[in-house]
Amino acid sequence: MFRLPTDLTEHLRDHGTLVVPSPQRAHTVRLAHAAARLDAGKRVWASAAVHSSAVWLRQEAQRCAAAQLSEWPRLLTPAEEWFLWRQYAAEATRRFALVNGGALAESLQRASELAAHFGIALRAGAPDSEATLLCEAQQVFDERCRSLRAASVASLLERMTAADAGTGRAPLLRGFDTLPPRLRAIAAARHPRAEPQGREPRDPPAEPRVLRAADAQEELERIAEWCRRRVLGQPDARLLVICPGAPGARERLATLIRQALDPGSVLSATAPADTRVGIEGGQPLAQLPMIAHALATLEWLAGAEGDFESYSRWLRAPHWSGPSAAVRARLDLKLRERASPSLRLRELLGGLQLAPLELQAAAREFTAQLASASAALGEGNTSPRAWSERITAALAAAGWPGPRAAESAGQQTLMRWHELLEEFGDLSGSVGSVARGEALGLVKELAARSAFRPADADLTVTLSPALADPVVQYDGIWVAGLHAEVFPQPVEPDPFLPLPAQIAAGVPAASAAGRLAQARTLLAALRRGAGELVLSAPLYSEDLELLPSPLLTGGAVEPPAQRLVWLPASLHREGLTETLIDATGRPWVAAQPLPRGTKSLDLQNQCPFRAYAELRLGSTRRESAEPGIAPNRRGELLHAALQKLWEQLRDSRSLGALSSAALDALIARSVEQAAQALARPAGRRRRQRAFADMQLDMFVEMAPALARECRRAARLIRRLCECERERAPFSVQAIESDAELVLAGATLRMRIDRVDALAGGGRAILDYKSGRRVSADWYGERPTHPQLLAYSEALGEEVVALATVSVNAREVRFDGIARAARLLPAVKAVRTAGAADAWGEQQRAWRAIVARLIRAFLAGDAAVDPRPGACDYCHVIDICRITERPEATNE
Asked: Which of the pair, 17 or 626, is modelled with greater confidence?
């Protein structure tokens, strides 16, 4: 369990005040104090006065101001301090587009506070130096404070040293590797006999063990195994793991520890409750999903323009009170069909009005709630306090935050959001009136700089990024990543303060000696704070060899152990898992036509599992909004334009009789008619069928992207017409015609792009392709275009040629197979192989292939058996998990 050193226990029991460096350490001390009170049999006790140094100094400044109300200025709130520094930084960087004003403001404020804590006098240096910039910023900040009759905590530190705080509490400072002089002086002034750093604890310090891991991944795995072993031996153990560096490593480590403590969670369908492992420090409030959704809602309500995918994520987020998640997902799918790549809220609301009949009620509800939220937010200029009230009302009208706020973490996050809006409202005394855009920008910046994490319970394992004194005593502490570049920490003097002044004042980050002393102080604190102390460092980071910290030489170095097997790999290793191959789904009812016509044959030919997943389980690819025209719309335009063109021409003689100008005019008119039909909403298209095909709708506005696509389509069709002029005489018998095939006990309904009657007799089937051409295989067991084989079987023995017609920017060409050469441009004759009727033999082979595909689909065949290349663009590859098969070669 958590344990407090004896002197801290006595100090808090006597109602003394404890000051620690950070809010995280303060939270840990409170937990340890509560555990001690419970262990002593108490059920009610006074809350411990444990504060971070920043909170305690602000409280002391408020006490001094209350004791001498007429002599002390008003204390700026933290948000006001940030805003005043931000104002100067924004003005200073106005001429430099690439300089981050927000980062500069935080750096200047941090340097000013560091100078105040260590008593460093600010002096200007060279005209363009950082020191001069800080002096100028400090002067502007102080002038602004005087105009407001206010002051920051940092500017009052020296005055607080001599002031009478009017309290009898004895402050004790613990956990600081170096005490800032002003903080030490203020604590001493409150209680002259106080010992700021406290006495040495009575428990003997732990002897550290030193471990060298092969690399960072193995180090994380060993930490997880150590946590598992410690918790198995002592279920009530409390462990601290200090892991400096990038946040991603701590997230991975937290996952590994959870899996080590609860191996069943690896195979669980739901995420495990985060009750045993937690990460200190939190993350920016703006990055929490609930708050990110609120900020996005405010931006959209204010008229911001965004890409459709951002709108889609916002629409499908779980932070709505209504409509339901299923309804919003269906609305998203419908909007995706016709959405433009970028849009504003008014375009989104317009798209909701075109929702299908079954979704119209939900669409009206959603539209009304967003309109109400937009009205509640309003426009114009007003004070931050009024804007905070408007923001609260607008989010409530929009249905935020939804059911997630009922959970404990959601309640804490919601409370922190309201505190943030309260802080923003407090800017009214410093800001005055602001416009809507500026107000939302300030709220977003405040949320981005406010770190937050919902309060954890009494965790078994705590992960910390900070190399800092733990203050309380843990059952075990592991400090990871202690290679020479990390420990002692690198020298990082503040760039805005003169280096000699920082060294003279004793700023530890300003010199190597200060960092070394800081590291030694930390090692001593870790030894006092742990029953077991492990220090580790990796040998390699990828291909870079790392040297261990020289401060680790005093510990006992453990010999390299056998490399651990990652937990999920150990659970899935041979002998622990069974393989079950289920390649058959539910049969298709033969009385019903096969779904989506020849698409069922094509998918079954590509991969039986994909056919079952897409056509039987509904695992379709989600459309994505892209710039320009979507590929399916491009194909629709091309097919419709060619249909209208050949309805006018009818045969090769009419094509050859047209002059170049007349042909261009006919093509342009056909493309325009096709585009007009595509531009109409679906319901309006049905109503327009009664009108003549040649009539243009003057009330349909053509988008610029569609107009560009029309010009492209006209060029491609003209190239195709030049190719068709070189063919032998032919006539077009059918365009976009329906056909039906009854075979193998099933009915297959299909739509054939075009059927030509050839001069020498027989018919040719043509299938337009607007995408990239794929080299065809007509003789294998899994031919490339099974739909053409089904068309041939449906039309009977008169078919003498099959071909795809590629019409794209790369090429315009025929690619197929025929009974004889030169029936179609560049289409070769069928291979004879010694047969007298090679074409008839091939047609019978194709009939058998189509019948086999139909029977497999009817039987529910769902084997994971892709054709070569079929997985390259497959959207169900994560479901079939073919990449986990050792024999899988088609990745």
From this structure: 17
Whether the Cβ atoms of residue 302 and residue 436 lie closer than 8 Å to each other? yes
DSSP 32-85: HHHHHHHHTT-S--PPPEEEEHHHHHHHHHHHHHHHTTTTSPEEPPHHHHHHHH
Model-level pTM?
0.77
Distance of CA 135 to the CA centre of its chain: 41
Angle between helices 360-377 and 345-352 (to 10 degrees): 150
Specify the 3-state DSSP secondary structure of 621. Answer: coil
* Cβ atoms 741, 794 nearer than 8 A: yes
Retrieve residue 38's tokens. Answer: 């419970």
pLDDT by residue (tens digit) across 293-344? 999 999 999 999 888 888 889 999 999 998 999 999 888 888 887 767 778 8
Helix (H) / strand (E) containing 90:
helix 78-92
pLDDT tens track for 808-845: 999 999 999 999 998 999 999 999 877 778 999 999 99
Q: Number of H helices and number of E strands within the chain?
A: 32, 25
Instruction: Work out the number of other CB atoms within 10 angstroms of the CB of residue 800.
Output: 21
736: part of which helix (H) or strand (E)?
Answer: strand 730-743
DSSP per-residue letters across 184-232: HHHHHHH-TT--TT-PPPSSPPPPPEEEEEEEHHHHHHHHHHHHHHHHH
386 close to 408: Cβ distance less than 8 angstroms: no
For 278-318, the DSSP string reads EESS-EEGGGSHHHHHHHHHHHHHTT--EEHHHHHHHHH-S
Per-residue model confidence (pLDDT) at position 691: 38
How many C-beta atoms surround the C-beta of residue 692 within 10 A?
A: 6
